[in-house]
Amino acid sequence: MATTPNVKLLLCTFLGFLSFQVHGQDFYEKLSKKLCRCLEREKVETSDQMPLCYEQILFGNMEEIKKHYQVASLNDINAEALGSKLAAQLLKHCDYALKVLAKEEKQEKKTVTKQANLTCKDLRSGDFYYLNEIPNQQVPDTTHVTISGNIFLERMKGGRTFSLLNIEWKDNCHFVLVFKESNDPLKKELSKPGDEYVYEVMTNGPKSFVLKLFWKKEEFQIELFKTD
């Protein structure tokens, strides 16, 4: 999925506890459902509180995890793959986690009202970027975006990973992104070919656009910066 707010925060929150890798989508779905139930049971209200449930699920299922993946120690498993899969499963299937992230973002960011006499023609082609704030890191992670024709291309991690989507304009300032493919650990777990994400442009300023993403019953805000 493109320009998803709080995904990096959620992923990095999970990665703070371990370093290991797991395989098998059904297994991840099972763990994510347990994690979702824990978030509801514990009435978690912020992303900072989520690791408490993650730790419970991880160590409460330790023997099952080691048996399933035929490892003697959790140290033999990779953190990024596990965090990516669990974060993707939560964002897709756990409405409670999504509500927590949406509420948290609204509290942290100023609500943007739609700009009067808005025009979005200069968003239809060009190079842009957006930032992902990562806990415990002073420098945000930068995702570079190129829009050309019906192509929306994202490049992450210094160009080592990418996401390819089609952009379909519905009118002057509304568009839909249709996922095609990605080699990014999180985004390829989060989306499958054909998945659609609906956006509305809220402002067109000198330095950036502010976009609103509609996902399930929640709304998120993304600032897409213009390149010089």
In short:
The protein is of the alpha+beta class. The chain is built from seven helices and eight strands. Helices cover 34% and strands 29% of the residues.
Q: What secondary-structure arrangement, pairings included, does this model have?
A:
Blueprint lengths: L6 H9 L9 H17 L8 H11 L1 H8 L9 H15 L1 H14 L17 E7 L8 E8 L2 E6 L4 E11 L2 E9 L4 H4 L5 E9 L3 E8 L2 E9 L2
Antiparallel strand pairs: 1-2, 1-8, 2-3, 3-4, 4-5, 5-6, 6-7, 7-8
Helix pairs in contact: 1-5, 2-3, 2-5
Structural write-up:
- The chain has helices at 7-15, 25-41, 50-60, 62-69, 79-93, 95-108, 187-190; strands spanning 126-132, 141-148, 151-156, 161-171, 174-182, 196-204, 208-215, 218-226.
- It is built from 7 helices and 8 strands.
- A hairpin with a 4-residue loop joins strand 3 and strand 4 (161-171).
- The protein is of the alpha+beta class.
- Mean pLDDT is 83; it is low at 5-9 and 11-24.
